Every structure is written in C-alpha cells, then in structure tokens.
Amino acid sequence: MADTTTTLPPAHRATGFDIRTIMTRYGAWIALALLILVNLAITPNFATWQTLHVNLTQVCAIVIVGVGMTLVIATGGIDLSVGALMAIAGALAPLIFLGKLFPMPHPAIGVALAFIVPVLAAAALGWFNGWLVTRLRIQPIIATLVLFIAGRGIAQVFTNGNLQVFNLPSFQFIGLGRVFGIPFQAVLMIIIVAVAAWMLRRTVFGRQILAIGGNEKAARLSGIPVASVKQRVYLISGFLSGIAGLIVIARNSAADANLVGLGMELDAIAAVAVGGTLLTGGRATVIGTLVGALIIQLVRYTLLANGVPDAAALVVKAAIIVLAVWLQRQSHR
Amino acid sequence: MNRIPLKLFQDIGRYGVLLALVALILFGWVRYENFLGAFNVLSVLRYNSMFALVALGMCFVIITGGIDLSVGSTAALGSVVAALLSPYGVMPGLLGGLAAGLAIGACNAFIITRLNILPFITTLATMLAASGCALLLAGNQSVSVSYGTGFVELGQGDFLGFPIPAWIALIAYLLGSLILNFTAFGRTVLAIGGNEDAARLMGLPAQRVKALVYLASGGLAGLAGVILAAQFGAGQPIEGVGWELFAIAAVVVGGTLLMGGVGSVGSTLAGVLLLGLIFNILNFENGLGWISLSAYWQSVIRGAFLLLVVAIQARLSMRTEEAA
Fold first, then answer.
1. Main-chain phi, psi angles of A183, to 5 degrees
2. How far is residue B122 from each of residues B28, B48, B73, B117, measured CA to CA in Å?
3. What is the DSSP string of B19-55?
4. Are residues B121 and A325, on separate chains, in Cβ contact within 8 Å?
5. A138 neighbourhood in chain B, CB within 8 Å
6. Between chains, do B120 and A279 touch, taking CB under 8 Å as contact?
7. Using CA atoms, how far apart are residues A330 and A324, in angstroms rounded to an integer?
8. A interface mutation test: which of B307, B308, B319 has the most A CBs within 10 A?
9. Phi and psi for A200 in degrees, rounded to 5?
10. Largest CB tally within 10 Å, which of A30, B122, B174, B304?
11. Nearest-CA residue of chain A relative to B238?
12. Are the beta carbons of B20 and B272 closer than 8 angstroms?
C-alpha cells in the first residue's frame, strides 16, 4: 500500500544510499537548511530573535490551517473553504465578546464563549463539507467551493462588512501572548503539529486516512469506515481553520471579514505541496507541511529583506511550488 | 456507464439551467419595472461578457477533466498589459492583452503536459505568478488606459446597438460551440475527458489537444482582461480574484460534469447569465426598498445556488449509477 513510505521507520526500507530516496525524504529539510545558510550569509541581522519572531508569527496561521489541509489531502480530497471559515470565526468572536450578538452576563464568560463558539462553528461547517463529500458524493473541490463562495459572504453579512476593532488582552493572548518568551501562537502551532503528526503515524485513524488516500476502494473493501473517516478529516480542517481565524484577528486587534484568511487556501496547499505530501493522497507528512510553510515564508522574507518587491516574491513562490512537485514526481517514479 | 440514463442526466443538466434561467427572467419581469428594458439587458450583457469569456475557456478545460485556477489573475495581467499598450491604439492593446493571456496559458500547457504535474497545482502556481507579474508591471497600482485612441470602445462601445464586449463573447461562444461539436479537435476534447488513456491508445493526440485547451483558456482570460481594462478605464492588477471560482460555478451550474467527458458550451453561457442575473435581481430588489440586502448577500446566494445545483446533480448521478 502506498502509505508504507511514511508509516514505516526508515530502517525498514533502507536499501542503500539512493539519492532519490534521500531527495524525497529530506529534500524539504535540505532546502530549508540551504535557505537558512544563504540568509546567514547575505541578509543583515538575520540571526536575531526579532527575525525569528517575525517569521514565526507570519507562519503560524498557515501551518495550523496547513495541518488540516494535509489530512484532507492525505485522503485524496481538498479543502478550498479554509480561508472563508477563518473569516467566519474571525467575524463571530468579536461579535460575541463585544456583546453584539447577545448580552454578556460577565466579560470572562464572553471571552470564553468567544474562543469556543467560533471554533465550533467553523468545525460544524467543516463537518458540512464532509457531509457533502461523503453523503452526496460531490467532488471535494466543488463541495468546498460552496463555502468558499458563500462563507466569506456569511461573515460579511454578520458584520455588515465593517471592520471590528477591539482591545481585549485576555482574548488577544492567543495571538499576542507569550509563554516563557515564546509567542503563544507558536506554542499552539507546535502542539497541533505534534499531535497531528503523532496521530497520522501512530493511530488507527491516521492509518485509515492514508489507506483511503492510497486506494479508496481497497480501503472500503478492507472494512475501513471511509465515510466516517473523511467526515472527521473535514471537521478537523474546519476546526483548525477556526483557531487560525482567531489567531489572525487577535494579532491584528481587528476583525475584517473582507480580509481575514484571504488566499489562505492557496498558502496552505502550497505548504502541503512543498512539504512533500502527495497531492493525490496516500502519502502525507505533517512535519513536512511545517517545513514547507517555513520554506515559503523564508523565501519571501529573504527576498523582502534584500529589497525585492513582494510581487516578484509571488512569482518565485509559484516557481518553488512547481519545482517541489516536479522533484516529487521525479523521485516517485 | 449505461447510455440511456447518462443521456437523461445530460438532458436534465442541460435544460435544467435553461428552465432556471427562464424562471429567473420571468420573476424579474413580473416583479420589477424596466427589468427587460434595453438599458438593463444591455448592461447585464456588457458586464457579464468578461465572465462569459473566462467561463468558456474553463468549460473546455473542465471537459478534458482538468481545471484552470489561473484565469482570474491571467485576466488581471491581461488588463494591465492592455492598459499599458492602449496609448498605441486599439489593436496593440487588444493583441497585447491576448498575448499576455496566451503566455500564461502556454506556461500551463507546458507544465501540465510536459512536466506531468496535476492541472490543479500547476494553475495554482501560475495564478500566483500571473498576479505577481501583473503587480510588477503595474507598479502595485491600477494603470489608467488612454482615452484618445478609442481603446475604451472595446469595453464601452456599441456595434449595431449591441455592446461590443457582448459581440466578442457571442462570437467566441459560437466558435466554441462549433469547435466542440463539429471538429475532430472538439471530439478529442470530449474523448480525453471521458477516458484519457483510452483516447491516447486510440491514437488521438491527447497531449497536444490538452495543451491547446489550456492555451485557449489563457487566451480567453487575457481577452477578458482587455475588456475589463476597456470597460473600467484602467488595468487592474488586483482584479480577477475569485473569477476562476465564478467560472467553475457557472460551468457546473451549466451541467458540465467535473469528471470530464461531458459538457456543453451553450449551457455554460446560461450558467454565466444565471449567476450574473442573481446580482442584477439583488440590485432591483434593493431598489424596491422593502428590504435592503447588502451586496454581501450576493456571494451567499451564489453559494447557496451552487449548492442546490450540485446537490441535484449528485442525486441524479447517484440514481444513474444505481440504474446502470
């Protein structure tokens, strides 16, 4: 089955010093290491805490969404709605803690609900995506296109398209807080990546995800509850998008339904692709997605720090995506 | 798959969208004054012709079983190039925008057919690249077109009392329909979507036809960009966001299957008009003053509409599967 490549420890398939195997397995790591070395050489003030901090905060939301996207892609699906779900979560939270939706008995309850309700709403919409994919058997790209189109509209209708500005440290801890000097969002990101990586490698659920992506028919015939697994994967993707939406608005001290999560689906898919997850499903790496997101962010940072305009960085990003997928294909033949 | 249920399914897909379109037009005609007045009809056609061009390219791409996510930013790039060349006359602007679109289309064709990378990921990348190029060329701001050379006529002018962009779209659709239904190229497009391996084994030039389809999609998107620039008097590097999804929605609403192999150019046009009319009717509804729906409802309604259509399609195809 196609999933053995990531789920077996390296020792099992060590067949000598094959350059292709090394490129597939460690290509993203090598690229990341090269990028860091290049930056140490040419970018002024690269090895500072501030650089690390800037890059980490830029990348957190992408990685968190990317983890959900990795799981969805591992089953052979795709989730285009992540950015729109971020916008919905981001629009709901301020409505709740500012008491616009319903009066708040106590501010602390408002903050607690502002964490819980938006994330649950995003998760519920993710479940809805999964329902469309599994029960109505609509292709994932179209099923999630529905919420991609309607979701941001829903968020805009909630807020009437207005910018919601706020200053609430207890809520904004998720985006601005620090634990022992480390940004809380980075801690959250690392926990999510670790849990997802463990789940994908070590649990039955993880194995089932990869089996479905490898060969859905075979998975069904071998007794895997395909529909239920897929349903949960889309739910997780929605859940993580909700968290990412909260992080983004907390960081900005403002929620703008027009902008929160805009283009996030592309960033997340790009991180997944560069990280080495097979886009047709069956082979996935969560850590790879983290590395992929770091690579894309570092490339952008390198170009910006050295005076290349942001627009040119887009072109480079495109080239990296194509190159990464092409290399993946070469080594996978 | 069984022939007869598939035929039935196609028919429902094809005539369903026409029925919905007629119902929507009747609704508007009964409810609003001037809905079918010349001004409204012509401005709806003028505005939606850009989307129609993009959707036409998308229709061909989807019939081959692929997808083109780059059309929106390709149109933006086309609009910037056209605006930059508009001081030199109508033709340089038109051809420049078209060439920019063809260039992106050629990139797509090369990466998809030569490097064998999935269309989805390829066009995702070229979407970023085209948008980057558009921003670079335009210097991060919109580029106003020259009004002295008659370039804006391409978007704002009329010919025989009919908007020029609508003429362009109409001709493109006629050609598209003829090509799909009456040429070897069109039959190959359908065959590739039905079963690419079988098409290749039968000796059809699958790779070349696929390459041409992506090239055409890029070119049509570039042309849409030219009209965008001419209609709004500026090349807009950040326009076109979400156009690809609008186009996909129009194609799907038109009954073209996303698995490929089945599709119709005419229904795609109906799908474009249907989605465009939703916006128009929303405007009229607000004009009545009983309710006030913000423009944001537009995307919610479009999304709900897409959901309705795909749900019906899914139901029908499940039934045909069971019957087969």
1. -55, 135
2. 41, 27, 14, 6
3. HHHHHHHHHHHHHSTTTTSHHHHHHHHHHHHHHHHHH
4. yes
5. 310-311, 314
6. yes
7. 10
8. B307
9. -70, -35
10. B122
11. A311
12. no
pLDDT at A138 over 90: no
d(CA A226, CA A139): 15
Which residues make beta-bridge pairs with B159? B162
Question: What is the C-alpha to C-alpha distance for residues A26 and A7, in angstroms, rounded to an integer?
Answer: 15
Q: How far is CA B305 from the centre of its chain?
A: 17
State whether B124 and A321 contact (CB < 8 Å).
yes
Cα separation of A147 and B303, whole Å? Answer: 7
Tokens 């006030």: give the residue.
Answer: B292
Q: How many angstroms away from the CA of B122 is the closest CA of chain A? A: 7
Rounded to a whole number of angstroms, the distance from the CA of A180 to the nearest CA of chain B is: 38
Q: Which amino acid is at A302?
A: T
Contacts of A13 (CB under 8 A, 6+ apart): A4, A5, A21
- The neighbouring-strand residues paired with A255 are A164
Complex ipTM:
0.80
Indicate which CATH number applies to the domain containing A208.
Answer: 1.10.3470
Range of the domain at A320: 46-332
Q: Which two tokens stand for residue B191?
A: 């065959």
To test the contact with chain B by mutation, choose from A142, A158, A330 the residue with the greatest count of B C-beta atoms within 10 A, namely A142
Please state, in angstroms and rounded to a whole number, the distance separating the CA atoms of residues B184 and B192. Answer: 12
Could you count the other beta carbons within 10 Å of the beta carbon of residue B147? 11
Whether residue A39 lies inside any domain: the answer is no
CA B158 to chain centre: 22
- For residue A145, list chain B residues with Cβ-Cβ distance below 8 A: 245, 248-249, 306
Q: Which residues pair with B260 in a beta bridge?
A: none
Pick from A89, A81, A101: which is nearest to A150 by CA? A81
Q: Please give the structure tokens belonging to residue B199.
A: 């098409």
CB atoms within 10 A of CB B25: 17
* Most A CBs within 10 Å, among B248, B299, B316, to test the A interface: B299
> A195: number of CA atoms within 13 Å, CB side?
11
Is residue A29, in this structure, part of any structural domain at all? no
Residue B284 tokens read as: 């009229």
Q: How many CB atoms lie within 10 A of CB B184?
A: 12
Instruction: List, for residues A279-314, the tens digit of each pLDDT value.
Output: 888 888 899 999 999 988 888 888 888 888 888 888
Number of structural domains in chain A: 1
Q: What is the pLDDT of residues A252-287, one digit of tens each?
A: 888 888 888 888 888 898 899 888 888 888 888 899
Cite the DSSP H helix spans in B147-264. Answer: 153-156, 164-182, 184-194, 196-201, 206-232, 243-253
- Residue A32 in any domain: the answer is no
What is this structure's pTM? 0.83
Query: Alpha-carbon distance B243 to B51, whole Å?
Result: 7
The Cα B239–Cα A153 span in angstroms is: 18
- Please tell us whether the domain made up of B3-323 is placed in CATH 1.25.40: no
Interval A33-82: pLDDT, tens: 888 888 888 877 777 888 888 888 889 999 999 999 999 999 999 998 99
Find out whether B9 and B316 touch, Cβ atoms under 8 Å.
Answer: yes
